[in-house]
């Protein structure tokens, strides 16, 4: 749970910086957020969560 909260916070900061610097526009950003929201309710969500957890574990082993 702590990993997902910190990952959401990190990604939120990155999106905020991209919007503020002009590299990311609001409407495509909303479309990507909605895509992620609806993707989370599909059957592939546990696979994505497992992949993110394994990459985070791999990075923390360094």
UniProtKB/TrEMBL annotation:
It comes from the Bacteria. Keywords: Membrane, Transmembrane, Transmembrane helix. The chain crosses the membrane at residues 6-23, 30-59. The keyword Transmembrane applies. This is DUF2304 domain-containing protein. It comes from Streptomyces albidochromogenes.
